[in-house]
């Protein structure tokens, strides 16, 4: 699978996917990108982050560099999976630390080639603390299983360190407009009359445009429907290509999604949803009169509200968790994570990873705002993220986003299908049949 654009962090998407490589020196030592041997004084790190996320990472790294004297040579590389794959194939230098692949097949392949190093070795006597302190959904396969390549666990060993997470499927609103009680069920949500709240024009706002990755916000919405409507087993099997798109459960998910994006439900109609960038999708909530009541999006969207409209979390806007669709699956929560893997097992790389696994390091991320850490006991000054942490900690299953973990051809077709059915709901059956064909081919060769 190629680099999965939806797995890039939110700010990386917002800053533009056209710029694939941006080198940023995080130390006085410059921006070297090779492994450089078993160094005790330098470590090379690749990340997809830019903007505020990159600044936050620098803040996290500063105490480490100051206390150890180790220089971190930091590169923002938004094509790291492909470049690392090429390096593995050619036998050339790799970064010491970089995100692990999101494609389960690449995970297994790179492990078999010795490219990924187990955290059990890297963290040493600190490994048990890492497992105990991190959200279990990010570290622990289902009971009785030793593999979950989606979280880079293979053969009972962990090949990535989880450092951050986000919660998806939240419904955001302007507190000065929506003054009602959060609906308990999805049917209750769909039944609300937006005009009763500040004269809002529509129930929902939506924005599915994201350049070459257009469609991923729509996939987040349908993922949250399917996991709550038909359950985690069907949802996971669907990601793995074991459930067809024409399966009644998946078709029902599409049909439910179309209720959210009908001309009568979405601000500006379907074409507006298709042409609006995801980062600006919620802006109409803060207009006068408001364009809509709600925007469904992940925790990171709070940064865009503040950036675009100058509003404050907890004072001007808030969210409620995704309402129940099928009560037996209420514990299923959609999230994503940021992780690092080790490609060169050097003393400096070990020290860095051991530091990133600590509460002190991840608390800096939490204090800078805009994200949840992976550690369960972090404190959040931002009320939005404090409540999102409660949702993450209370989740029965913290499920990955489907499109992010499908083979590249499948992902592209899936995202495009959501744009197509939004534009023309009557094309649903033909779209699902086409997706079955893509699924059969892409999973056979992935």
Can you tell me about this structure?
It is a single chain. With 446 residues, the protein is α+β, with helices and mostly antiparallel strands. Strands 4, 7, 12, 13 and 14 form a 5-stranded mixed β-sheet that branches. It has a 4-stranded mixed β-sheet with strand order 9-10-8-11. 39% of the residues lie in helices and 14% in strands. The termini are close together. It has 2 domains: 5-167 and 334-399, Periplasmic binding protein-like II (D-Maltodextrin-Binding Protein, domain 2, 3-Layer(aba) Sandwich); 170-331 and 402-445, D-Maltodextrin-Binding Protein, domain 2 (3-Layer(aba) Sandwich). The protein is globular, with a radius of gyration of 21 Å.
Keywords for this entry:
446 residues; alpha+beta; D-Maltodextrin-Binding Protein, domain 2; five-stranded mixed β-sheet; four-stranded mixed β-sheet; 39% helix; disordered N terminus
Short structural summary:
The chain has 446 residues and is α+β, with helices and mostly antiparallel strands. The protein is built from 17 helices and 14 strands. The chain has helices spanning 10-14, 51-68, 80-90, 104-112, 119-123, 127-133, 186-190, 216-229, 232-239, 248-260, 270-275, 301-309, 347-356, 359-368, 383-394, 408-423, 428-445, and strands spanning 21-23, 42-47, 71-77, 97-98, 153-154, 157-158, 161-167, 170-174, 202-205, 292-297, 317-320, 332-342, 372-373, 397-399.
């Amino acid at each position: 699978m190629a680099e999965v654009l939806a797995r890039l962090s939110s700010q990386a998407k917002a800053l533009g996917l056209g710029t694939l490589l941006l080198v940023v020196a995080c130390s006085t030592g410059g921006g070297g990108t090779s492994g450089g041997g078993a160094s005790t004084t330098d470590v090379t790190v690749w990340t997809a982050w830019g903007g505020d996320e990159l600044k936050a990472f620098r803040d996290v790294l500063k105490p480490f560099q100051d206390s150890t004297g180790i220089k971190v040579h930091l590169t923002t590389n938004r094509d790291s999976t492909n470049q690392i794959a090429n390096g593995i194939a050619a036998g050339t230098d790799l970064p010491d630390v970089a995100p692990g692949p999101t494609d389960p097949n690449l995970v297994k392949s790179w492990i078999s080639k010795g490219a990924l190093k187990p955290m059990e070795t890297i963290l040493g006597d600190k490994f048990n603390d890492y497992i105990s302190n991190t959200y279990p959904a990010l570290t622990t396969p289902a009971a009785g299983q030793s593999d979950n390549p989606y979280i880079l666990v293979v053969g009972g060993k962990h090949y990535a360190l989880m450092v951050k997470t986000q919660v998806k499927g939240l419904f955001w609103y302007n507190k000065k407009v929506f003054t009602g009680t959060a609906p308990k069920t999805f049917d209750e949500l769909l039944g609300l009359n937006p005009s009763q709240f500040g004269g809002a024009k529509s129930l929902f706002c939506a924005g599915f445009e994201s350049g070459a990755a257009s469609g991923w916000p729509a996939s987040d919405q349908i993922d949250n429907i399917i996991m709550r409507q038909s359950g985690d087993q069907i949802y996971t099997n669907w990601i793995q290509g074991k459930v067809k798109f024409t399966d009644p459960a998946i078709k029902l998910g599409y049909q439910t999604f179309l209720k959210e994006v009908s001309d009568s439900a979405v601000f500006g109609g379907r074409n507006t949803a298709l042409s609006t960038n995801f980062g600006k999708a919620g802006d109409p909530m803060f207009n006068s009169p408001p364009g809509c009541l709600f925007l469904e999006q992940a925790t990171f969207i709070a940064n865009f509200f503040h950036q675009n409209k100058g509003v404050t979390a907890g004072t001007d806007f808030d969210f409620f968790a995704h309402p129940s669709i099928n009560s037996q699956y209420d514990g299923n929560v959609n999230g994503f994570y940021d992780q690092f893997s080790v490609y060169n097992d050097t003393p400096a790389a070990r020290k860095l990873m051991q530091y990133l696994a600590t509460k002190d390091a991840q608390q800096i991320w939490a204090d800078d705002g805009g994200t949840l850490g992976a550690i369960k006991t972090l404190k959040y000054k931002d009320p939005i993220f404090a409540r999102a942490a409660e949702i993450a900690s209370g989740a029965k299953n913290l499920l990955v986003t489907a499109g992010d973990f499908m083979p590249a051809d499948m992902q592209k077709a899936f995202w495009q299908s959501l744009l197509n059915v939004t534009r023309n709901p009557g094309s649903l059956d033909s779209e699902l049949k086409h997706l079955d064909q893509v699924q059969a081919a892409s999973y056979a060769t992935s």
